[in-house]
Write a structure and sequence with these properties.
328 residues; 4-stranded antiparallel sheet; 9 helices; globular
Length: 328
């Protein structure tokens, strides 16, 4: 499920699941989940509660298909119990751990679509690249006259990757904003890569799940008048945090960590994005019928802005959805 504007819609249904058997389909609007209506503010709570804190075997939904009345559904979920302690010295546990890592790598892969020399589409799921890796991707991108940077669903990531990408997209040093901590404030500056960067036309795609570094980059593109931001209002979650990794044990090691918020970022126009998000230059949302047909009118509209013909059906096939594996 994803929020589009202020409404939640089913975007994917796992094949052979009870949800599929019950007739749940992409494009169905979710009116309520166990009696509670989904909103932009509470969607993350559903995921945290149902996938981590208190998984439940049955979920009661009220959904509405395009052109039909609302209907109740009771959907059975697949609940898997994990081990309380994973022994990475044991072959079975280690294999499972490695497969999960392979899954993570697959889900976070940078993906591209090209249309001759005219356009390249870069679907960037996370800001998890090093400075050198950002440069490598930009060297690939700058062979084209225009770039669509697809940050839909991008939850953010490393500050280093954010600053290097901004430096590759702008021909001058950019003061992104001020990092505001409890006792100090300091500027956040992206140094330009100069002639090594990308100088073509730019469209940035965002949605309700674009967060953190993705939001900051989109707002910099607007403030610097570097390109057009298109899509849906972003999530408004830009507080900077630091991760503190820890471990305990000797023969059997338990790895854990804590993420602690340490700063807000005040953009160069003096405004914080926290709780507000980025409003696109052009708001463009898919409808229920687009979701049902797996069409992508947002990507299609971005290509049209750059003079490239790409219908919504073809756009929807460029970056197919990836499911995480079950029954490891």
């Amino acid at each position: 499920m994803k929020m589009f504007g202020e409404s939640g819609y089913i975007t994917e249904v796992r094949p052979h699941s009870d949800a599929e058997a019950q007739g749940l389909k992409p494009g169905d609007q979710v009116i309520s989940i166990d009696g509670i209506g989904p909103t932009r503010r509470n969607t993350w709570i559903f995921y945290y509660l149902y996938y981590r804190l208190a998984p439940r075997p049955l979920v009661k939904l009220v959904v509405q298909s395009p052109g039909e009345p609302a209907r109740p559904l009771e959907v059975k979920a697949k609940v898997q119990m994990n081990k309380r302690i994973i022994d990475l010295t044991d072959t079975i546990d280690l294999n499972k751990y490695e497969r999960e890592g392979d899954d993570d790598e697959l889900m976070s892969a940078q993906r591209f679509g090209t249309f001759g020399d005219d356009l390249i589409i870069w679907k960037m799921p996370h800001f998890d690249l090093t400075r050198d890796e950002v440069d490598v991707q930009i060297d690939r991108v700058k062979k084209h006259r225009a770039l669509i940077l697809d940050l839909r669903g991008n939850l953010g990531g490393a500050e280093e990757a954010l600053l290097r990408l901004i430096g590759n997209l702008c021909d001058h040093d950019v003061t992104v904003g001020e990092l505001k901590r409890r006792k100090e404030t300091k500027p956040l500056i992206a140094k330009t890569r100069g002639d090594g960067g990308f100088k073509g036309k730019l469209v940035v795609l965002v949605d309700s799940e674009s967060a953190s570094a993705a939001e900051v980059l989109a707002r910099v593109v607007q403030l610097e008048k570097r390109g057009v931001v298109l899509g849906d209002r972003t999530s408004g979650k830009v507080m900077r945090s630091r991760v503190y990794p820890h471990q305990m044990g000797l023969d059997t090691v338990i790895v854990y960590g804590a993420s602690v918020t340490d700063a807000d970022i005040i953009m160069s126009d003096g405004v914080s994005l926290e709780g507000a998000g980025v409003t696109p230059n052009l708001v463009l949302l898919p409808g229920a019928t687009n979701l049902r047909a797996h069409e992508d009118p947002v990507l299609s509209g971005a290509a049209e802005l750059l003079g490239v013909k790409l219908d919504a059906a073809e756009a929807g096939k460029l970056f197919p959805f990836k499911w995480r594996a079950l029954n490891r």
